[in-house]
Design goal:
76 residues, mainly alpha, 4 helices
Length: 76
């Protein structure tokens, strides 16, 4: 499986659904177990990028950005 907009959407949804968990390694591990068809290293990199983007910026502005990404039609 290649990594593209649909997979970014999965990563974003996974992070947002696990907002109560701030432990990045645990979120990455859970995602790797859930998305076994994605290269684990690629998944770790994308989850990490989105995690630090989400938690390192103004969360309301980021949520607006993420909502726009999530409503765009995605090819899966």
């Amino acid at each position: 499986m290649t990594w593209g907009p649909a997979e970014d959407s999965l990563a974003i949804r996974f992070i947002l659904s696990n907002r109560v968990q701030y432990d990045l390694p645990e979120i990455v591990r859970d995602a790797q177990m859930r998305f076994r068809n994605v290269d684990p290293k690629v998944l770790e990199n994308r989850i990490t990028w989105w995690y630090y983007y989400y938690y390192g910026e103004d969360q309301q502005a980021v949520e607006k950005d993420l909502a726009e990404i999530l409503v765009q039609p995605q090819e899966v």
